[in-house]
């Protein structure tokens, strides 16, 4: 009798250990497929077509990629992306310095911390505007200072050699604040006993930082690295606000170039824009793969 | 002027009568990009007037930010087409005409009231031998200058290239830049190219070049750039113009650091608001460069269209008739409204110094032809590459060969498609 009841228990009940996690995952997987995976696949597909977004798409094989290969504007954008990736990482040591400096107990330290964190809170658009005025060749503070010391005025945002560095400097301001806050929370978790023990062993200054503090900050460093890399690859709003990609396209990065070609007033070359997006995606994929691998290793180590 | 007004009144009466015969009902959905304060008031006023004429018609007006509209139009024309939509004339219509998204309204243009009164803009509305919309306003381009500074140094309005340059030299000798310009958003440099090329090589050549029939490396194009370079080498333009928008370039003229601005008539309002009075601000037509070449002008035209997916095309056609009617044209282009030029030749131009000069120039002193503007005459893709080249040329004139080769390869690629 009891055997019969057991047989009759539903399939769902018997497999609930497998089914429950799948059910919980389902909504997330669904959204991830619709909003991430399918669009990526579609970008790959569109990049083989010539399409203005209105008429019939026409298959042209690798022609968009062949054109990318000879497109100097694309080359400039790619190089600028590399500059962004390399220089944006300066936000990590800078954030660490400020965090170490602010990690003390004096009157009003909360206020100082908030002030340092402030640039991350305000919108990138505002940061862009502030720096545009700072660099302005006629009334900008930078040139007032330079001419005050007897140097020639420089038009940072109008000079094709300087413009990308000028925008990166603007981007570093909020990004440093972000890294700082990550390190400040990390420093809270530093084990005081280990610091005490190290001190008894005679460690101090740089050695204390390098061998005792930094290893404990590894999780914070990892997150800071991730958000900074992502931030560098997403650098769109500052460029749009500060130079609109100019002068003559010398401050464009891939994401901005993609937008210009595919979606701006003079664009609507969907296939070409998609080809740029695919290249950008492949670059991002290198980093994403590294992040995932690195997290996987951590998880394995934790077990 | 009086004669115009009376004929306008007669026309309005006949139009009103014909409108009353056709009782319009149902819903009329209008999408508009007239989002700046003055155009917005004009658009809302037109809807109110048209609604009063057709009480049974339910008009729904949606005003979209002018810049956002440029991308949104692609979506709503295909997905959820209104009955009437704003856009621009000439090649800018091309993508929508090719995709069959604009209604062919040649029948409207065959009606005598429109055919006669709007003859001057018919060419700008024609693609593939048919008309795809109606204009509602246009404005002149030309040189707006500081009359008081010119008087101070004893300069006259130039009518030839030599005087143009010698005026400029006098100004430079006195520490005043000849021209202000802000090329951050590129199109302002397109205006300079339009005029230099139309004056150097003529309207027909310019149209062939913008439509991709002539190589950018052509010797005649180089001559245009050589003329431009004369001004650049003199230092005629304000420094660091690549960092400014057209509005940010206005203060140079207001403060007297630069004496003139090659611009559209829309620059007059902010210049007046900044404090320049009628004795300080005046206008002249861009002077002749090559003798014997007929003067041609830029006069961008803004338009209304009926999407092919419209539901109430009958009411939409009636609205277009109303928009271009002489009375309405006089009203919406008046100084206290759009402050531009009416497209209906039976309308009267508001009594404004600049509008009068512009109207006289376009109606009697532009025998070469009326161009729309570089980024409306050239295909969008060509325009973006070329205008970037113009900006680079204005900063680094030595890069000319490289720039022209780049533009030429873009032209070839577009033509191959």
TrEMBL record, chain A:
Span of domain ABC transmembrane type-1: 77-293
Domain of life: Bacteria
UniProt record, GO biological process: transmembrane transport
Key word Transmembrane present: yes
Location of this chain's protein in the cell: Cell membrane
UniProt keyword Transmembrane helix, yes or no: yes
Residue stretches spanning the membrane: 21-41, 84-103, 115-135, 162-187, 208-232, 271-293
InterPro entries: ABC_transporter_permease, MetI-like, MetI-like_sf
Recorded topology in the membrane: Multi-pass membrane protein
Signal peptide as annotated in the record: none
Family matches, as SUPFAM superfamilies: MetI-like
Keywords: Cell membrane, Membrane, Transmembrane, Transmembrane helix, Transport
GO CC terms of this entry: plasma membrane
Similarity field: Belongs to the binding-protein-dependent transport system permease family.
Protein name: ABC transporter permease
Species whose genome carries this gene: Marivivens niveibacter
Highest classification ranks of the organism: Bacteria, Pseudomonadati, Pseudomonadota, Alphaproteobacteria, Rhodobacterales
Automatic annotation (TrEMBL), chain B:
Membrane-crossing segments per the record: none
Domain of life: Bacteria
Family: Belongs to the bacterial solute-binding protein 1 family.
Subcellular location: Periplasm
GO annotations of cellular component type: periplasmic space
Organism: Marivivens niveibacter
Alphabetized UniProt keyword annotations: Signal
PANTHER family found in the cross-reference section: ARABINOSE-BINDING PROTEIN-RELATED, BLR3389 PROTEIN
Protein name: Sugar ABC transporter substrate-binding protein
Signal peptide (from-to): 1-22
């Amino acid at each position: 009798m009891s055997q019969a009841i057991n047989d009759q228990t539903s399939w769902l009940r018997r497999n609930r250990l497998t089914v429950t996690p799948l059910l919980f995952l389902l909504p997330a997987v669904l959204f991830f497929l619709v909003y991430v995976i399918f669009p990526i696949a579609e970008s790959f597909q569109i990049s083989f077509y010539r399409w203005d977004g209105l008429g019939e798409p026409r298959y042209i094989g690798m022609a968009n990629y062949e054109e990318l290969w000879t497109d100097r504007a694309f080359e400039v954008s790619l190089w600028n992306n590399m500059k962004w990736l390399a220089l944006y990482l300066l936000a990590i040591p800078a954030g660490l310095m400020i965090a170490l400096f602010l990690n003390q107990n004096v009157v009003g330290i909360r206020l100082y911390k908030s002030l340092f964190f402030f640039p991350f809170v305000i919108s990138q658009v505002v940061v862009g505007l502030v720096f545009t005025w700072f660099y302005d060749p006629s009334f900008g503070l930078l040139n007032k200072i330079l001419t005050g010391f007897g140097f020639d005025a420089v038009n940072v945002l109008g000079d094709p050699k300087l413009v990308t560095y000028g925008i990166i400097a603007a981007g570093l301001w909020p990004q440093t604040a972000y890294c700082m806050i990550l390190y400040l929370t990390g420093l809270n978790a530093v084990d005081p006993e280990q610091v005490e023990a190290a001190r008894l062993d005679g460690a101090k200054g740089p050695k204390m930082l390098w061998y005792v503090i930094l290893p404990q900050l590894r999780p914070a460093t990892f997150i800071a690295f991730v958000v900074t890399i992502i931030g560098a690859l997403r650098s769109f709003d500052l460029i749009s606000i500060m130079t609109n990609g100019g002068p003559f396209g010398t401050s464009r990065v891939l994401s901005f170039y993609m937008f210009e070609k595919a979606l701006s007033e003079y664009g609507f070359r969907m296939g070409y824009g998609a080809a740029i997006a695919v290249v950008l995606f492949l670059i991002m994929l290198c980093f994403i793969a590294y992040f995932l691998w690195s997290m996987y290793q951590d998880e394995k180590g934790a077990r | 002027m009086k004669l115009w007004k009376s004929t306008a009144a007669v026309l309005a009466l006949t139009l009103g009568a014909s409108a009353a015969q056709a009782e319009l009902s149902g819903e009329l959905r209008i999408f508009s990009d007239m989002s700046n304060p003055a155009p917005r008031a004009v658009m809302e006023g037109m809807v109110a007037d048209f609604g009063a004429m057709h009480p049974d018609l339910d008009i729904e007006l949606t005003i979209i930010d002018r810049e956002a509209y440029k991308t949104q139009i692609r979506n709503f024309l295909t997905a959820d087409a209104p009955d009437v939509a704003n856009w621009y004339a000439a090649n800018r219509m091309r993508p929508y005409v090719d995709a069959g998204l604009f209604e062919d309204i040649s029948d409207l243009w065959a009606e005598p009231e429109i055919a006669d009164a709007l003859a001057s803009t018919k060419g700008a509305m024609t693609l593939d031998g048919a008309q795809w919309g109606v204009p509602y306003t246009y404005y002149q381009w030309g040189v707006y200058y500081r009359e008081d500074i010119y008087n101070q140094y004893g300069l006259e309005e130039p009518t030839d290239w030599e005087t143009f340059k010698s005026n400029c030299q006098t100004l430079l000798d006195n520490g005043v830049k000849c021209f202000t310009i802000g090329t951050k958003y590129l199109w302002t440099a397109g205006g300079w190219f339009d005029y230099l090329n139309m004056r150097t090589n003529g309207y027909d050549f310019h149209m062939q070049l913008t439509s991709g029939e002539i190589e950018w490396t052509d010797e005649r194009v180089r001559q245009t750039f050589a003329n431009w370079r004369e001004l650049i080498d003199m230092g005629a333009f304000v420094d660091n113009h690549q960092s400014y928008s057209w509005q940010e370039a206005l203060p140079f003229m207001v403060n007297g650091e630069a004496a003139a601005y090659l611009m559209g008539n829309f620059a007059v309002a902010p210049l007046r608001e900044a404090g320049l009075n009628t004795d300080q601000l005046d206008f002249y037509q861009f002077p002749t460069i090559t003798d014997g070449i007929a003067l041609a002008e830029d006069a961008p035209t803004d338009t209304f269209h009926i999407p092919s997916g419209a539901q109430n095309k009958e009411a939409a056609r009636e609205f277009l008739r109303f928009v271009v009617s002489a009375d309405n044209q006089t009203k919406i282009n008046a100084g206290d409204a759009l402050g531009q030029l009416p497209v209906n030749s039976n309308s009267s131009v508001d009594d404004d110094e600049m509008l009068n000069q512009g109207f006289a120039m376009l109606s009697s002193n532009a025998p070469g032809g009326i161009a729309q503007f570089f980024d409306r005459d050239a295909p969008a893709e060509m325009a973006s590459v070329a205008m970037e080249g113009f900006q680079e040329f204005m900063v680094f004139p030595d890069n000319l060969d490289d720039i022209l080769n780049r533009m030429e390869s873009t032209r070839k690629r577009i033509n191959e498609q």
